[in-house]
Amino acid sequence: MSYHCPSQVIVEAGGLKRLSQLTSGYDTVTCVTDEGLLRDYRGQLESLLSVTPNWVKVSDDPEAHTPGGINGVVIGFGGGRSIDTAKLIATATGLDWISIPTAASHDGIASEVASVSHNGFKYSKKCKTPIAVVADLDIISRAPPRLNLAGVGDILCKASSLSEWRFAYENFGESFNEDAYRVTENALNSVLTDGSLEVLVRAEIDAGRAMCIAGSSRPCSGTEHSISHAMERRNHDLHGMQVIFATPLCLHYLEERGYAIQSQESIHKLMESRGLPTSLKAMSMTPGLFYEYIVHALDLMERRERHSILAGVDKASLMRTIRTLY
């Protein structure tokens, strides 16, 4: 079976040097990044490219910098916003794109899914898959530690998304792909047992590959992600911190139904040991506000035709569980 996944994946120290061979056949290069990274890496990137790139900053309007020509490539160099903007430009123009993450903060570095905002809320939009991912471990290791910790959260939350996916498949007939499930499960297990940066980056790339295989974000994104999207209007924490924070709640109810592949208690203990948020105080949140986010998340899940493990759980039960777990 064939999937539209990255044809080249480079995860190594000094991997950025491989960029020249990846872009050698293109007439134009558009590089999307932020102000700070542009200042720090502009010279290095331009020295590796055969043509002078068109620079697009994430603070700019992407439509005002839409690249011309049919033999061009778009590079996303940076964090989530830079990579998502590169995805959107590549999708709008039909051009190839290359993902070069500068932090291991999320699992979108190799996926075809971009996070976009509408009326203050974030949602996922299907885009193009990158033709290549270049993860230079030297560069990623220099990222603020909290960014890479958020990436750990974005992988550990697969304990919830995978469990809920199988639950929804077996009880409500949602589409399911065993290959995508196994790829995601292996990524989760690798981070559960190994805290190294390389393992985290490879797990994030595999999560993106699983989404390609499944044709949707469902293997990696369940109710815990919808709760995170609901948080966006008031909370502005890192995505990985928000999704892992919501994970114990989902696992609690998945355990009750016999579907949790990891126990709520084991994930909670791992979150504590790795410095991930485990309390309402850590997220500057009240039980009532958390409940509001859950209500909105359930609406998001319904609109996406995805069944939530929290569907049908009454407010009293949710509030009691929130107070107990957090």
Q: How many separate helices?
A: 13
- The CATH topology of the largest domain is Dehydroquinate synthase-like, alpha domain
Question: How much of the sequence is in beta strands?
Answer: 5-15%
Helix content: 40-55%
Count of distinct structural domains: 2
Inertia-based shape: elongated
Please compute the radius of gyration using only Cα atoms.
Answer: 19 Å
Structure write-up:
This protein has 326 residues and is an alpha/beta fold. The chain folds into two domains: 8-140, Rossmann fold (3-Layer(aba) Sandwich); 145-325, Dehydroquinate synthase-like, alpha domain (Up-down Bundle). It is 50% helix and 14% strand. The protein is built from 13 helices and eight strands. It has helices at residues 19-23, 35-48, 80-93, 137-140, 145-156, 158-172, 178-193, 197-214, 223-231, 239-256, 264-274, 287-303, 315-325, and strands at 8-12, 28-33, 54-57, 72-78, 96-101, 113-118, 121-126, 132-136. Strands 1-8-5-4-2-3 form a six-stranded parallel β-sheet. The longest helix is centred in the middle third of the chain and has 18 residues, at 197-214. The radius of gyration is 19 Å and the shape is elongated.
Please render the helix and strand layout as text:
Blueprint: E1 8-12, H1 19-23, E2 28-33, H2 35-48, E3 54-57, E4 72-78, H3 80-93, E5 96-101, E6 113-118, E7 121-126, E8 132-136, H4 137-140, H5 145-156, H6 158-172, H7 178-193, H8 197-214, H9 223-231, H10 239-256, H11 264-274, H12 287-303, H13 315-325
Structure at a glance:
By secondary structure, the protein is of the alpha/beta class. Helices cover 50% and strands 14% of the residues.
